[in-house]
Amino acid sequence: MQKVTEILNLIEQYQTIIVHRHENPDPDALGSQGGLVGAIKAGFPTKTVLKAGGDVGDLAWFSTMDNVTEADYKKALVIVVDTANRPRISGEHYHLGDALIKIDHHPNDDVYGDIDDVDTTASSCSEMITEFILASNGKLVLNQEVAKLLYGGIVGDTGRFLFNNTTPHTLKMAQALLETGIDHSQISRTLSEVTFKQAKLQNFALDLLSIDEVGMGSITITKELMTKLDITFQQAKAAVSTPGRLKEIKAWVTFVEQEDGTFRVHLRSKGTIINEIAKKHEGGGHPLASGAIAKDEAEMKQIETELHQAIKNYSNED
Fold this sequence. Notes:
It is an enzyme of class 3 (hydrolase). Its EC number is 3.1.3.7. This is Bifunctional oligoribonuclease/PAP phosphatase NrnA. InterPro entries: DDH_dom, DHH_sf, DHHA1_dom, Oligoribo/pAp-PDE_c-di-AMP_PDE. The protein has helices at about 5-15, 25-45, 125-135, 145-160, 170-180, 185-190, 195-210, 225-230, 275-280, 295-315, and strands spanning about 15-20, 50, 75-80, 100-105, 115-120, 210, 215-220, 250-255, 265-270, 285, 290-295. By secondary structure, it is α/β, with parallel strands linked by helices. It has 2 domains: about 5-190, inorganic pyrophosphatase (n-terminal core) (Alpha-Beta Complex), CATH 3.90.1640.10; about 200-315, Diaminopimelate Epimerase, Chain A, domain 1, CATH 3.10.310. Strands 6-7-8-9-11-10 form a 6-stranded mixed beta sheet. A hairpin with a 5-residue loop joins strand 8 (about 250-255) and strand 9 (about 265-270). The longest helix is centred in the C-terminal third of the chain and has 21 residues, at about 295-315. The mean pLDDT is about 95.
């Protein structure tokens, strides 16, 4: 967090603070949002601090949203966490507040907000919020409820500290969270749990997986398959990481069909930079983990072609 003092000053000034995150939230989006809200509430008990956004899918056990109305934004401070670009912000009224702050760790392709604090070296937005709380000189409070959310967010975005975005600073922030006495093993277990139906989908995903000569993997999960397995769109995310366990895979794409017939695109990589591909298709994200949208099968094929070429170029560089 590079702008601690500026952000703290605004938090102290406003009686109402509304925190948003991105649509289709993951643990980091919910963890950084809920952790920040909890830390502000604990430090300023008389303030109204709200979590805004749409459906959280099967992560309702982790964090739920408040009932936020348009009227709540009058004379309010709005903070958006873990959201690189404005179209991905969950909640339509975020622009109606008096002031807007962006806190994020994705590449800063869409600069917005009166204060825009972006740190692409952070493993997660939850890591940034943890650092922010610790730097607040006690104005924000790191209690166990806050620590659970932030630890879950860090675990989610680092793949339980397996991904290369895990740094010494990440582990230092995780240590501070563990020192509150949270049950870290229970948090990690719950985040990695899948239902029996989701496990069946993972098996189907391996059957559907194609791997080409450069190590590009591709899976398409249709509405028909999700209906057959009684799986929701949100639950289908359980299959996204499945190909990463295979030695032959260098980078992969998972297409998940949405209700309107378009496809949610999940791009993942073990080294090849893939977020530039996502940006070409209404998406973005991290260099090794990004999301996008494909309108039809033709765009899906285009994404596969671009990913194939990116892997080939990366291999030639080595």
